[in-house]
Specification:
By secondary structure, the chain is of the alpha/beta class. The protein has 20 helices and twelve strands. 44% of the residues lie in helices and 12% in strands.
Length: 454
């Protein structure tokens, strides 16, 4: 029995049929008919929530959906509204200091009642708008992210003040986080990087509607509210059944030894890509016009262990909502998105450009894609060079510079990946240990160390 009074069982043990149906098909169907553009993002949300079911999960999985206004970010939050007070906690506005309060207006013996941390414990914390938090001054950003960093370790938070002395909550304070934000500034990425970012990001899809589609979307058929209510109902039903079928919080025993090694290796490879893309490097400009140049500090690239842990947890959540107690290649697309989109906007855009152009781009390509000047394009590519993502050959203006994706990352390219991922009739195969080693993605000892951490 667990501390919640339910049996701790694995999905495989709970059902004779493998995989069992928990209504995920209904979610795909209903959301696909009402909001097809965010069907994949809805599954990603459910995957985040499902990480709470893992008996061995230590760190909270926090995913923020990033996109411009009116990109259906808060619609995803609305889908989870009826999931129940035992599963979700929504806050339209909060400050990190509210996790453990030191308010002078509240008596000490009443502070436990206003602390946010106990209220989100073992629930999914829903934050519809993070722009006010990300839009703070650098000094306030650093303070807030230092609190979030500790809270997202999942072990509680203790703080001291001159008003109430030492207060806090320690122990098992696992929760999940789903937030929404408009595109965030580079300085915010830099601040998060200084503390070791615990956040993953997913970019909202860009949908170009025709005039006719826009009219139909707003004024045709069922109203927006009716469609949201329909999706909210199927999501709530799915999560309720999932909680009942698995036994609830921390009730899924996951046998890590049964996860396919080729899938684990691919997640580890994505973790290293993410760590490099989020590396911290200062850039400053000198001169102007034809004499303009950029200088760079020594890059600081975080170890990939935390990224591996978060991506692995997200993949496991995705497996659970699809009725599996082990990973498969079907979980990798979400991992790939999280790895490539949890990065500053300019680097994300250039990586997409590189992958789309088979690993070779020129400064003109970056100028056109990002609508930036030639010096800025060169600075971005020089940054990626210093982050060990490729090689930048820069002869200087007016000759275009060229950027070549690192050989160790060419498995990201569609053509090469297709060549390296033959699958048998059961869909297995992806990248084998030998193929990963052959293209130099990472050494065996590095992979083993990463797997030991997870």
């Amino acid at each position: 029995m667990t501390e919640h009074g339910v049996s701790s069982v694995s999905i495989a043990q709970a059902h004779d049929v493998n995989p069992f149906s928990m209504g995920i098909e209904a979610v795909y169907d209903v959301v696909g008919r009402n909001f097809p553009e965010i069907s994949a993002e809805t599954i990603a949300c459910l995957s985040v929530v499902a990480t709470l079911l893992l008996e061995d999960q230590q760190n909270p999985v926090a995913v923020n959906f990033e996109g411009p206004p009116s990109s259906a970010k808060t619609t995803l939050i609305d889908f989870l509204d009826d999931a129940g007070a035992d599963k979700v906690y929504k806050s339209d506005k909060f400050t990190p200091k509210s996790f453990v309060s030191h308010s002078a207006n509240v008596k000490r013996d009443k502070l436990d009642e206003v602390d946010l941390l106990p209220r989100i414990r073992h629930k999914t914390f829903l934050v519809p708008e993070l722009a006010p938090l990300f839009g703070l001054r650098n000094e306030d950003l650093l303070e807030n992210f230092s609190i979030l960093t500790r809270v997202l370790d999942g072990q509680g938070l203790s703080t001291d003040s001159g008003v109430h002395g030492r207060r806090g909550h320690t122990g098992d304070y696992l929760f999940a986080w789903i937030g929404c934000t408009t595109p965030i500034e580079h300085r915010v990425w830099k601040t998060m990087g200084k503390l070791g970012s615990r956040f993953l990001f997913l970019e909202m899809p860009k949908v170009d509607l025709s005039d006719s589609d826009l009219v139909d979307d707003v004024a045709g058929g069922r109203s927006y509210r009716q469609r949201v209510d329909t999706c909210r109902g199927v999501v709530a039903d799915f999560l309720e059944r999932l909680w009942i079928e698995t036994g609830g919080i921390r009730s899924v025993n996951w046998d890590r030894s049964k996860d396919p090694r080729d899938v684990m290796l691919k997640i580890a490879a994505y973790a290293k890509v993410l760590a490099r893309l989020r590396g911290i490097i200062s850039v400053w400009r000198e001169g102007s016009g034809d004499d303009e140049s950029y200088n760079f500090s020594t890059p600081v690239i975080e170890a990939p262990h935390r990224a591996m842990s978060l991506l692995y947890a997200l993949a496991r959540g995705h497996a659970i909502v699809h009725g599996r107690a082990q990973l498969s290649v079907d979980d990798l697309p979400l991992v790939a998105r999280a790895a490539l989109e949890s990065t500053p906007n300019d680097r994300r855009a250039v990586m997409r450009l590189l992958i789309g152009k088979q690993g070779l781009i020129q400064t003109g390509d970056v100028e056109a894609a990002l609508r930036c000047s030639a010096p800025t394009a060169r600075a971005i590519l020089e940054t990626l060079d210093k982050l060990q993502l490729g090689r930048f050959e820069n002869p200087g203006a007016p000759v275009a510079g060229s950027f070549f994706l690192a050989d160790s990352l060419k498995w990201l390219l569609p053509a090469i990946e297709s060549e390296l991922t033959p699958c048998d009739g059961n869909g297995r195969g992806y990248l084998t240990d030998e193929r990963i080693a052959a293209i130099g993605t990472m050494r065996h000892d590095e992979l083993q160390k990463l797997e030991d951490v997870t």
